[in-house]
Each structure stands twice: as structure tokens, then as C-alpha cells.
Amino acid sequence: xxxxxxxxxxxxxxxxxxxxxxxxxxxxxxxxxxxxxxxxxxxxxxxxxxxxxxxxxxxxxxxxxxxxxxxxxxxxxxxxxxxxxxxxxxxxxxxxxxxxxxxxxxxxxxxxxxxxxxxxxxxxxxxxxxxxxxxxxxxxxxxxxxxxxxxxxxxxxxxxxxxxxxxxxxxxxxxxxxx
Length: 179
Fold this sequence. Notes:
Order of helices and strands: EEHEEEHHHH
Radius of gyration: 16 Å
Helix content: 25-40%
Distance between the termini: 17 Å
Number of domains: 2
CATH architecture of the largest domain: Orthogonal Bundle
Shape: globular
CATH superfamily of the largest domain: [2Fe-2S]-binding domain
Strand content: 5-15%
């Protein structure tokens, strides 16, 4: 099987039942993506596939051959943290840090969803209005990512500040495999 993960090509011989999470953690040793509940309920395993957020514990790796997969490790560019990673540090958006990689990948995917007009339970029609990234709007859009430590206020603040600064979250991760 062939995978494009964090801009790198990987050819692997895998069991067809291998989850995307187990591929990145166990076969490629990219341990930033976490195995939390292994049932798709906590979001600790969130990665980006072609810019969309998914729970990698529920995805079979075989489904994502030749697609662009980005883990938390792939967000660093030129040895600099992604702006959202830096915002998490500045706003204490983590305590134990276990959920942080999934939170960050999910927030980046969430922004792409908003740019494509995906509504939430709070904002039903994005075509007719400008969405304000209020505390409630962000909590709704990030509700698939849980933090057991209680760092949600720092997480929401980091996301609000990053988006308010106009960070370009779509261009700060690898889109194509390196030759």
C-alpha cells in the first residue's frame, strides 16, 4: 500500500484491517496522534486527510491510500511551530497534553469546514451571515474533541486568537509527497 503522510511517501505491506491510527503510531512511529477511547468518541486520534479532520481510530488505512494525510508532526514547517500550536502554548491550551494533537488537527479542519460553508448547530446558514467565532460556536464545532483535564477555556482562547489573527491554516501542512 502507498501512503502520503506529512509530505513523505510510504510504501508498506499492511494487514487490510490496520487502522489509520495504528499505521501512523505503530508502523511509522509518529506517536503524536494519540489512541484515547479507540471508539471515535474522544478525538485524541484526529488527523487531517486532504485537509478534512477524521478520527483515525475508526478509519482503515487501506481507505486512505494515495491521499494526503497530515498528523500533528506534519504541521511544523521549517522547524517552526504551526501558529495554532504556538497559540496553545501561549494560552495554556493543555495540561497533560494528551488530547492536544487531536485538538489542534481538529481546529485546523474546523476552519476549513467553515471556509467551505459547513454549518453547525449554532450557525445554520453560513451563506447568509458572517460567523462569529464565539465561545459557544467554537465549543459546538470542537465538541468531538474532549479534554479530561479541563483545559477547554485555554483551547477555545487559543483557537479564537489564532483565527482572529488571520492565520492561514490550509497552507501550513504538506499537501503533496516529497519526490
